[in-house]
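Here's a chain:
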Amino acid sequence: MSERYEVRHPGVRVWCGNESGWSSSLLVWISRWTPEVIRVETPTVFHRTVWTVEQAVELRDVLTAAVRTGSDAR
């Protein structure tokens, strides 16, 4: 992972596409009140997103950072 992501509130926005073909994003964040919970806010009604390989790699890196941050809070 080449970048460090700060997933604590307000979190990290990760770009993707949605089911209508528009560019969209989801938000990955951890609240200071519930550090053991990783929150992922999805952009669409049906929760279907479309990812390029590069976008999926970034999402993986952001989720890895969130898991590490949440584990540190234990």
Observations:
- The helical segments are 53-72.
- The radius of gyration is 13 Å.
